[in-house]
Structures are given as structure tokens and as C-alpha cells.
Design brief:
GO terms for molecular function: carotenoid dioxygenase activity; metal ion binding. One of its GO terms (cellular component) is chloroplast stroma. There is one protein chain. This protein is mostly beta strands. It has a domain of 117 residues. The protein has 8 helices and 35 strands. Strands 4, 30, 31, 32, 33 and 34 form a 6-stranded antiparallel beta sheet that branches. The chain has a 5-stranded antiparallel beta sheet with strand order 3-7-6-5-35. β10 and β11 form a beta hairpin. The chain is globular and about 70 Å long.
Length: 599
């Protein structure tokens, strides 16, 4: 990551800090006549500020940032840098700059911040609750509540390598009540975010991009260790960014990132997003948790897991209806540190796809990322009963070539003897984390016979589809409809398609039955399904709306769009113009008004 905005070596680095530029640059006021004109300087760090403090003189970086990144965000200013920083702070800053400039500069496109943070991937500032303009149609009454979308939004301008997964979590929420809408954007106030805000500089290492090659990894680990010993941060209080998803269970709302504990949040009456704090569930959840827990809509139980670089590499657990965590079930049959990002549940089972992506020390030694695909590894799927006491009940199925990152749905057939799972298969898995723009995801239906051990699979569509959702009422039971984002390329979503799984049961043909493309220069994110009548057990599975944020890269305007899930064109029935840009992000959630009031 970046470093503190001061330097020990004045001949090499000077104590300067610049802000993110969030509007086209204006000519700065001329300095007083008694002061010399500022010279070109090197940028050390930048941060996004809510307030408007004073401006400090800056040095121009040698590496120029794209004009689009600068002009597409609002202009903000940072506090003046303190000149009397402690000696250890200055030393750590020097080491940061040496590592970022000489040992491990961001040479690869996938970790080059001027590429990763270009256009609508560039961060925005927090926005307090602001009333929105409804520019099309009328917001349906079933949308009374709030739609949240989580995603990365770095607090500071990265100076070294930066991966899209590294950014600080920011929630973008639109609160809807009686046809009116209020929008708010707030950082998840994680321990990392607050510590770096107080320090006025980034001090935590980037987990995805900061450990490339043995030399750089040892160097950054040494600097981080020094900072820990000097009390600059405490890793036991969390190192995560909570930037991946949002979930509601146990009568609480959580911002999630799989490298840390969940952060409880709530929505104030005026639509403001408030971080309550890190939740360890009465001391029963000591480390990290998946960003994709599964809530059974019937039992109200929530199932989750964690994975990590050390044994047990996978641990399964669940929460009761009241959010009380149950005992861990270590899965010792996972014998290597696998990247298990998501899973699925049925009425009686939990399904874990173990793909070819692993955390590899050898990859790091060879100068690459510590997380990479191993072509020698055979992908497999594990099935375990939901209330298992140990991993002796886990049954594994080898499925060569099936690399699942996100699961869509799963259910049981043949009186529980057959498990069916629907999920996108990453065909070019070697690019899954490094070059997502080269990834093609093919949605497949996978059938596993628990008695014979046989597995069959076939694609439901030839399109590049991911970030898929179903009607939440059909989690763990057989569903018919799926709503997927169209990669163009990933992670940018150029439209939404609706798949009818039943069409594949006879002749395995293309299952797309409805489509809505957002238009030239317009891209959205993961869609989310909201039922019109969630309390009606006789309502149709697709009787509802699809919602998403959509950004127009030509006009630089973002909208909240509402689409009719039954329409063959997924017709837009309402659209809200948002008061500021919403960067592309990850996963979202709609929470009904009656649940918001209980937070």
C-alpha cells in the first residue's frame, strides 16, 4: 500500500500529500509574494475526505494518472501534513517507497492502479442522505425498504500495486418509501479504515496485490511487523476491508469480506448508513467468515464457512434463527489452501465447490501472486449434511474442468439421492484473479448421484454470465428462473438475462428467455430479485422486479433501475437518477422496511 505523507530522506522523498481530484482541476491560487513558487514534487499518498481542509503543496508524480480518473470524481482537499512525525513512522514510509518504486512497482496491468482505478472504477467520496429524482415511471410499493450494494473504494490513492479486491468497502444504499428515494454512500468503518483515517495515511498491506515475489513479500511483511511492534496497528482487531457483500440474518445486517469478521451496520431513519462494529458472535467466531452465507427462508437458519492458508483449510458452521453461532466443523479432507469463495445449500446438504485456484507459496517465490490456478489440480465438489458433527460425512466428487467461484442455486431430487447445483464455470480459470476481462463464465447444471458417485453436467447458455441471482424464497429448493449479469467483459455488466432452467431438461438447449441490455456506454452490476408479494406462497417465482445500479460512462451519470422480471424484455418500469456516481462493485441486497426497523 501507500505510505505516510512524510519522509526521512528529504533529497529523495518530501513530506507532501495530495487529495483525490473529484472534478476537473482548477487553477490553484497564487502563493503569497513572500513565498517561493512551489516546485514539481513527488506524490506520496492521498486520501478521500468528507471535509474541506487546507491544501498542501504537492509534487507531480512521475507516473501520470489517466485524465478520466481525475476528472470523473469530485475535487477534495486533505489536511496539512504534520511535520513532526515520529522517527519510526518516517522510517517505515521510506521503506514503503523503496518497495513500491524499486522492489515491486505495479508493472502488471492487473495491479497497476492507473488501470484498475480508471473510469468508473475510480473511487468516490462519501455522500450523506440525499433525495433523488425519479426520472422514469413510479417506484413499486414492494420496494419500500433499501437496496444496498457493496464494493471497493480505496480511501487513499494507491502508490504501489493495487488489486480491485483490496479497496476499502463502501456501501451505496437507496432508501425507498412511498414512491420517494433517498441515496447515501458511506464507508464501512472497519478497524483498517478508521486506523488509516486517524493516521492520515495507508499503513495496512494490500492482501491481494502486496505479496508478489519472495523479495517484495518479505520486505512488506517486515514493514508490517515493524508497524505492529510499534503499535501502529493491531492485526487481532481485523485487517479486512468488508467490501464484498451484504447479508441479513439473526435480525442483523452485515457488511462482509472473507478476510475478516462481519461488520454489523444499520440504516438510520433518514437513510444514513451507520457502522455498528465488528461482530464475533459472543466470542464464537474468532477469525474470518465467507462473504456468501446462505439463509434458509424456511428454517431461518444461516449456513457459512471460512477458508484460509493453514489447516484446517476449510471450516463449516451455521447460525440458528436468532443468529447464535453453532460449533465449527473442520473439513480435514481439504488438504491444500483452496480458494473456496462461495457454496450452496439444499434442504439437507451443503455443497462446496473446490476449484483449481489455490494459495501457493511457490507462486509467490516465482515472482507471481500467492493466489493462482494450479493446472495439475483436479476440481471437485464436496457434499456434507447441514448439521454434520465432523467431516466424516463429507462426500467428494471429482469434476475435472469445473471451476466454480460463485454458486447460483442447488436442490435435491430422487428423495434426496441426487443433488443438483447450478453455477457459472470459469472456463479460463488462469485469468480468474489476474485478468478478469479475459474470463468467460458458462452457467452449467451439475447433477451428482450420491449413491453411485456419478456426475453429469451441461451448459445452460453459451453467453458470458456471472453475478447471478434467484428469487430468495427458492434458496435450497428447486427453482426455475435465474437472472444473470452479462460480462462485457467481466467485471463490467452490460445487461441482464433471464434463464429458464426447465428448457434444458429435454434437449439441453439455450435457456435465455428474456434480456435487457443497458445500451451503448452503459454498464451495471449484479442484479437482485425483489418479489412483489413475498408473503404470498402462491405467487409466481418470477413475479417481481430486478433492480440494479447502472452507470452511463458517456454522461457520467448513475441510475437505479427497476425491471419487470416477467417481461420478455425485462422492461424498465422505473428509474432514479442518483446524486453522484456509483463505481462498479460486487454484491448487493434488498432489505424490506419491516426488517430495517428492527436493526
Amino acid at each position: 500500500m501507500g505510505s505516510f505523507p512524510i519522509s526521512l530522506l528529504s533529497t529523495f522523498l518530501r513530506p507532501n500529500s495530495i487529495p483525490f481530484q473529484h472534478q476537473p482541476r482548477r487553477r490553484p491560487p497564487a502563493p503569497p509574494p513572500s513565498l517561493p513558487q512551489p516546485s514539481a514534487c513527488l506524490v506520496f499518498s492521498a486520501r478521500i475526505e468528507e471535509n474541506q481542509p487546507t491544501v498542501t503543496t504537492t509534487r507531480r508524480p512521475k507516473r501520470k494518472w489517466p485524465k478520466k480518473l481525475i476528472s470523473s470524481t469530485r475535487k477534495h482537499r486533505t489536511k496539512s501534513v504534520k511535520e513532526d512525525q515520529p522517527l519510526p513512522t518516517m522510517i517505515f514510509k521510506v521503506f514503503d517507497d523503496i518497495i513500491n518504486n524499486f522492489i515491486d512497482p505495479p508493472l502488471r496491468v492487473s495491479v497497476d492502479p492507473k488501470h484498475v482505478l480508471s473510469h468508473n472504477f475510480s473511487p468516490v467520496n462519501e455522500l450523506p442522505p440525499t433525495e433523488c429524482e425519479i426520472i422514469e415511471g413510479i417506484l413499486p410499493s414492494c420496494l419500500d425498504g433499501a437496496y444496498f450494494r457493496n464494493g471497493p473504494n480505496p480511501q487513499y490513492l494507491p502508490r504501489g500495486p493495487y488489486h480491485i479486491f483490496d479497496g476499502d468497502g463502501m456501501l451505496h444504499a437507496i432508501r425507498i418509501s412511498k414512491g420517494r428515494a433517498t441515496f447515501c454512500s458511506r464507508y464501512v468503518k472497519t478497524y483498517k479504515y478508521q486506523t488509516e483515517k486517524d493516521a492520515e495515511s495507508p499503513i495496512f498491506p494490500n492482501l491481494f496485490s502486496g505479496f508478489n515475489g519472495m523479495t517484495a513479500s518479505i520486505a512488506r511483511l517486515a514493514v508490517s511487523t515493524g508497524r505492529i511492534l510499534m503499535g501502529q496497528f493491531d492485526p487481532t482487531k481485523g485487517i479486512g476491508v468488508a467490501n464484498t457483500s451484504i447479508a441479513y440474518f439473526g435480525n442483523k445486517l452485515y457488511a462482509l469480506g472473507e478476510s475478516d469478521l462481519p461488520y454489523a451496520i444499520k440504516l438510520a431513519a433518514n437513510g444514513d448508513i451507520i457502522t455498528i462494529g465488528r461482530d464475533d458472535f459472543d466470542g464464537k467466531l474468532l477469525t474470518n467468515m465467507t462473504a456468501h452465507p446462505k439463509l434458509d427462508p424456511v428454517t431461518k437458519e444461516t449456513f457459512a464457512f471460512r477458508y484460509g492458508p493453514g489447516p484446517p483449510f476449510l471450516t463449516f458452521f451455521w447460525f440458528n434463527e436468532n443468529g447464535k453461532k453453532q460449533d465449527d466443523v473442520p473439513i480435514f479432507s481439504v488438504i491444500s489452501p483452496s480458494f473456496i469463495h462461495d457454496f450452496a445449500i439444499t434442504k439437507n446438504y451443503a455443497i462446496f465447490p473446490e476449484n483449481q485456484i489455490e494459495m501457493s507459496l511457490m507462486g509467490m517465490i516465482g515472482g507471481g501472486s500467492p493466489v493462482r490456478a494450479d493446472p495439475r489440480k483436479v476440481a471437485r465438489i464436496g457434499v456434507i449434511t447441514r448439521y454434520a458433527k465432523d467431516d466424516s460425512e463429507m462426500k467428494w466428487f471429482e469434476v475435472p474442468g469445473l471451476n466454480v467461484v460463485h454458486c447460483i442455486s442447488a436442490w435435491e431430487e430422487d428423495n434426496g439421492d441426487t443433488i443438483v447445483m447450478v453455477a457459472p464455470n470459469i472456463l479460463s480459470v488462469e485469468h480468474a484473479l489476474e485478468r478478469m476481462d479475459l474470463v468467460h463464465a458458462s452457467v452449467e447444471k451439475v447433477t451428482m448421484d450420491l449413491k453411485s458417485g456419478m456426475v453429469s453436467r451441461y451448459p445452460l447458455s453459451t453467453r458470458n454470465l456471472d453475478f447471478a441471482v434467484i428469487n430468495p424464497a427458492f434458496v435450497s429448493v428447486k427453482n426455475r428462473y435465474i437472472y444473470c449479469g452479462v460480462g462485457d467483459p467481466m467485471p463490467k455488466i452490460s445487461g441482464v438475462v433471464k434463464l429458464d432452467i426447465s428448457l434444458s431438461e429435454v434437449d439441453h438447449r439455450e435457456c435465455i428467455v428474456a434480456s435487457r441490455m443497458f445500451g451503448h456506454g452503459c454498464f451495471g452490476g449484479e442484479p437482485f430479485f425483489v418479489a412483489k408479494e413475498p408473503e404470498n406462497p402462491y405467487a409466481g417465482e418470477d413475479d417481481g422486479y430486478i433492480v440494479s445500479y447502472v452507470h452511463n460512462e458517456i454522461t457520467d451519470v448513475s441510475r437505479f433501475v427497476v425491471m419487470d422480471a416477467k417481461s420478455p424484455t425485462l422492461e424498465i418500469v422505473a428509474a432514479v437518477k442518483l446524486p453522484h456516481r456509483v463505481p462498479y462493485g460486487f454484491h448487493g441486497l434488498f432489505v424490506r422496511e419491516k426488517y430495517l426497523t428492527t436493526l
